[in-house]
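The methods section describes the discrete structure representation at length, but only in general terms. What matters is that the chain and its backbone geometry are given together, residue for residue. Nothing conveys this as quickly as seeing an actual entry. For illustration, here is how one protein appears when written out as sequence plus structure tokens:
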Amino acid sequence: MEFVLNAVINGLAEFGAFFDQESTDIADYQFENELKTIRKERLLGRDRFNTWFESLPNIYFSEDHSNAIREGGNVLFKKGKSRDAALCYTRAICTAPLKSESLALAHGNRASALYKLGLFEAAYYDCECALDCCHPNPDMIFQRQTTIVEALEKASMHDCVKQLRGLNLTEGLSEDTSHCGETSKLGESEAGRRSGPNEKKQRILEGGERGRYVVSDEPISKGEVILSEEAFASVPLHPEADLLSPKPRFLCDNCAESDIVPFPCYECRRTFYCSPKCREMHMRLHRVECEAYKKALLNKMPLEHLALRCLSIMFDELLKELNKLRGSRKFLKAEDVWHVILQCRGDGIFMEFPANVELLGKQIPPFAKNVYLLTQYLGNRTAFFENTRRVRHEIMKCEDEWETIVAAMLLRLSLQLAHHIHISSNCLAESFTGTSFEAGRLTQCIKYGPQFLAFYPRAALYNHSCDPDIRMKCEGNKLTILAAKDFARGEEISICYDLTLMSAGKSERREKLKLLFGVNCVCRRCKEPEDSKSLRKNRVICKSRTCKSEYLIGEAVCPRCGTPFDEMFYGRVFSTCAATDSSPYSFKVLYDLFVEMNDYLPKKSDLRNQGSWTIMNKFLSAKDENVKDDEQLNRLMIQIAVDFLEGVVDEYAFGNALFAYFSTPLLDLLAIRKQHGWERIGISSTLKKIKRSFEALSGKIKTKFEKYYEMYAV
């Protein structure tokens, strides 16, 4: 959440040249309503917007650049490095001009690499794309398709029929679209698509300091599903936006499937899909955003992007309801239309969802500026207004007033979403993984981080707790909340608004909750006089041999003996890691230093855990093969890995995908050990905790983690 609000401010700074100095003075700002706020920002004409928009950097497309990347992939492919070659071919696809020969060649070459990796369906799609782009050697591509079909037949006749159904892109979309996300379900009833069949009954109550809250309406047993909900809308989080060298994302922007073979939008090359079919299904929504992606605009304003996505989903239905509510009236001003819009209840979500404008305060003008900019974008660079002109003109004909209304709606949605969004984080692939993870390279190809910004209307009704009795799991665009204990009938159900708060100290939690959510938490953890869990993480042991007492890192001196806190001393692992090479001797020195520093860094402390993580990653990324061929060194690194996992187990082990990510160095070390045929090491207790953490993973990532575990850890 803090990341989102920071993005709003930073985005505004970047767009500052677009706004006049006469626009809203934040220091004197007083919020009245969304419409009046937007009126204050309406100072700029379309000509100036177009000039500014055109001045933004363009995406770089070049046949020569694409061919050079593809040739690099060919070198890797000839060496048998199909994963690395497939990544090069994907980068070549991202930089090749539309309908060019370089684009066709990149798709054709990637099909060969994917075939080697056993990704037959994606290889078939690549052949289709190569033919669609007029590949110079179509006979070769047809032959390649034949080989792919034969491979599918050998795998399983049943699976072959299932996978090939609808693969011919010229025949239209397959009827089986159940795996795809929000656009395939836009026509369904919202209540129906958000509810899970196995959910427990709940009630919404109001009263007292808690305000609105949710309680169970029947007993709930530990492990049962409390809520299962599809996101009303979600948008990908793009931390990077390199216009010259785009980085493929292995996450589908439509169905949110991870570990995919990326098929980009050919226009913007910033959104990626698991198949051409999924890409086509998403076009209704993406068409409104594509031009903005070309200029790397939306990644700078993630919350407003989500508001735009929500508006795209609901706008047609809203206009229909607005037309019914107006009766025979014709409106002349935006204020008249706005009054009726606030009465609309057809969607049952946004118009009545609360927005804490008092808490947002001075942050509202930056929101207003950004949504006004987006409205200018919609009017000047998309067909958003044109597509709804007939219906809108039945209500009110003035286009300028409609721009004001749309901007006000985007502002209202942004303010409502500001404290009710969910940042979906999980393990995601950074490269091609094939049908299974390559032994010893799990740490290099898997990362943990934010994937989507999403709005779950029903989940947003729960109150916050720093110590919730639930666990949350994201599978694509679907959020599942499970009971972590037995709930009695009438007991409140709460969730943690920001998972980073669970490891923060009491004062830090209170400050952050008040700033971001306006919450004064009264959960059982916040009522405790001391928060031993968070204090333990931030302690060191006095380096005086005669003292050895523990104290907080923030103290200037040891409270017991007065020895000054020595930052360089306690950071020796990091400085030594940075200064040494990656030879076997250097890692033995690092291990000895790690053991020595354990006398000064308590178990489960952040500095100890961070030092362990740094050593393990340096070891696994070492280019000197003698390092990984050293059995004794492998054994020492496993000791560090186990110590690290024991340090984070209390915080992350129970159904947490981050613990699964933290386990990747140990799993890689075990894989290397098994490949060499070395003696097994007895760490069964740690392995059980690792296996349990896989419950929080989803899709192909989960399956491959489980397979890797069974192959190398058991």
Remarks:
- The first strand starts at residue 202 and ends at 207.
- The chain has four domains: 1-55+236-420, 63-171, 192-231+456-527, 532-712.
- The radius of gyration is 28 Å.
